[in-house]
Amino acid sequence: MVKKIDSKPNYQHNILDNLSTAVVLLNSDLCIEYINPASENLFQISKRQATGANLNKVIHIDDDFVNRLHDAITNLNPITEHEASFTLPDGREIIIDYHLNPLQQPNQKTQLTLELAHMDRHIRIAREEKLLNEQNATRNLVRGMAHEIKNPLGGLRGAAQLLERELPSTDLKEYTQIIIGEADRLQSLVDRMLGPNNVPKKHNVNIHQILEHVRQLIQIELPKDAHIYFKLDYDPSLPDIMADSDMMIQIVLNITRNAVQALGGNGKITYKTRPLRHFTIGHTHHRLVLRTDIIDNGPGIPAELQEQIFYPMVTGRAEGTGLGLSIAQSLINQHGGLIKMKSHPGQTVFTLFLPLSNAPQSRNEKTAMEKLK
To answer: pTM here?
Structure first.
């Protein structure tokens, strides 16, 4: 059925702006008259750049798809297609369900709405929910085990201290000191496994100040013969986030130290920040999200470790404890965020997603929102 629309485009656009489904309005020449924010995120293009351009500027279209578009406009036929594959100008391939629907207004040429449901997005959300659930289950399991280990450790340490007092020779105290020292070492490891249990003390935090602070710490730690440099790709329009600055520093520090170790003294680390509008983290939809990428050009993470990389005690290094990424994921979860990882030889990307929806409205946020329109 052909829909007739009234002459209140601003009202309609306000509704479309708040949809998580990508919507594109085309004229009879297949030029874009409007895209909503979900389309901007999908195509990685601003409304200003897209408006007036041909559809093939945002998505590669073949002859079959062009014929479907013209058929919908000419014959006023709604068309639906499931799990269609398209290639974007930046080379990304996406799987989408799309619906074409012709629109008529009095005394005007027929327009066409193109609704796109990004199936990759649904797959991503399902994976994120699985990751969050696994992280919670693992954290609860580790906490239970750690608490069970701490009690006997305390008893062993106390018994060693009592034994030390009764020893007739000071030479024998060397052995009790070993017991006490190893008990303390295990206690420290258990505490790290338990991870932070403090409630985040949130306040206005600038993500770029956090990144710069960590970069300076890392550069101080680097040996003199290291050749590691940082590339900074910051979006200056980003607003502050409501976060615990100490926890944020720990998150970025843990990931960056892993990158430095992977590079082996020679390579590049990139810090990149971008805003995302109408983005879902797990099962929660957010109006505005901060995306921070920490990228290194090292050898990559072995494929057999990638699915378990955020589990405690999982590491690809003999000297590693495998707790840094688990702790980082736990800390960002306390902020309603998530860390994701992609890796192949030559590039590893850890992406931090943090909601900005709860941050106080500021001039910077308005600038960020306007920039994305």
So the answer is: 0.56
